[in-house]
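We give its fold:
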Amino acid sequence: MTTNLHVEISELQRQIEDYIGGQNAASLVFEFTDISGNQKLDVITVNPRHRQSFLFHSVEGIDQIDALKKMLDYVKTYKEKESSYTVQWTIVGDSELQTSYFRARNIIEALDKLYYGREVNSVTVFSVVLNPIA
């Protein structure tokens, strides 16, 4: 990978961060995985308040640049294409109720984003609500 590719990757990641919410939003992690010669990109949010991570969205591209461009296309329109869900949950063994918000096509996808990277039995979900259209 050349320096110009690093610069392009960095610029695409910055643009994605800007669309998702800029400096006031959760931190983002860009995780690439090789899948049969293609690059799967998982963008993961890390909430600064309760320090938990969740899947924001996944895409697959022929390389990292292609995957980042697809993610950028997604973040430009996801609010118009996906519903907003509020999930109330707690980590098993913790008494503090947490509230998180997800954009997803359906409740199952919202829960998949909540459970990303963790054991299903490690989280207790108290409610999932489809938010009214604003």
Summary: The CA atoms of residues 5 and 65 lie 8 Å apart. The two ends are 43 Å apart (CA to CA).
